[in-house]
């Protein structure tokens, strides 16, 4: 009498062990980390590229004002995320952003109306139709978060604001904040040299920002 062959039950599917689950989760986390790092790197690259373009434009305007003996200003449209260059052969009075007062001759009835000693009527600047200084709109979702000059009381976050460049080689001390989805770069303009420094992050306004620099 032959013995019956050993009966083998069908193999049932085996579940994941805790170690295997941890390995899978670690792989997924690593992939997500690479994706986030790549996105952040791309974001920083785009933001820095726009900051460098803006820095170059500001330096160019500084040089043009001195060489051409013309009053220039860079006008920022914060709502549209763009900036353009305007100029005038005559000095004009600088007015704070969103100033609702009527135009008037500097010093007509207010001894503090012309703190820079410019004289002339406020406004009067026209678009500079120079091929090297076209109106530029920031791309890739980058925006001009704030602009502050020494003729403002607080940083301007909407509407328009301007930075004045004078034929004598001076420029208003200014801060410009560029933002790309929560990432910031802060541009600082030196009033005596026109040099533009780019700082990483959302910098606060220096305590001495509104102090008058002496020669």
Descriptive account of the structure:
The chain is of the alpha+beta class. It is 24% helix and 23% strand. The chain is built from one helix and nine strands. The model is unreliable at 35-39 and 99-123 (pLDDT under 50).
Percentage of β-strand residues: 15-25%
Order of SSEs, N→C? HEEEEEEEEE
- How far from one another are the termini? 118 Å
Residue-averaged pLDDT, rounded? Answer: 76
Characterize this entry briefly.
This protein is elongated. It has one helix and nine strands. Helices cover 24% and strands 23% of the residues.
Provide key terms for this protein.
1 helix, 215 residues, alpha+beta, five-stranded antiparallel sheet, four-stranded antiparallel sheet
Topology:
Blueprint: H1 18-68, E1 71-77, E2 82-88, E3 126-127, E4 136-137, E5 143-149, E6 160-165, E7 174-180, E8 183-189, E9 196-200
Antiparallel strand pairs: 1-2, 1-6, 2-3, 2-4, 5-7, 7-8, 8-9
